[in-house]
Target: Phenylacetic acid degradation protein PaaY
Amino acid sequence: MPCYEIDGLRPVIHPTAFVHPDAVLIGDVIIGPRCYVAPLASLRGDFGRILLEEGANVQDTCVMHGFPGIDTVVETDGHIGHGAVLHGCRVARNALVGMNSVVMDRAIVGENAIVAACSFVKADMEIPAGMLAAGSPARIMRELSELERSWKVTGTHCYHDLTRRSLATLSPCQPRTETEPGRRRFEFPGVVPLADAKRDSEA
Model:
């Protein structure tokens, strides 16, 4: 993978973590146990430290960066959706930042909280534990439901499993030229979009 030392500091990756070969890690980046870092994520620790705690995941095209002296942290089981930008902020244990959201300097996303997709969390904002924040700029909307909390945990467990699957079976290959007859699909019962989970619970 593209992994770069700068000014004598090089990234640290725990042996049980999976960092995709097309992710980029620079300098003061620390990836903890069982983390997943997806293709095209950029974790650039050339000013401030970037830290992923155990079981965190950072998905495709995410960017993590920060100012000197300000750590950018995703705590244990934090879940960062596709295309999100984290800059000098802290995402607490078991929190989720939705796709294409931006979380700015010294903001804190509280434990078990969710930032909705395409939200902008301004500098120094604190999202309390267990709350939903949404909008641009983000506002505290309400407390999360039990269904939403459970859905988040299920999604993060899927990424824990993806870490194991990737370490065990992901490898470069040549594509097929035609779809083979009876091509199988991946099956993950119960893993559905949140809107589907809500619909099913109301049926």
Q: What stands out?
A: The two ends are 46 Å apart (CA to CA). The chain has a mean pLDDT of 97. The CA atoms of residues 79 and 156 lie 6 Å apart.
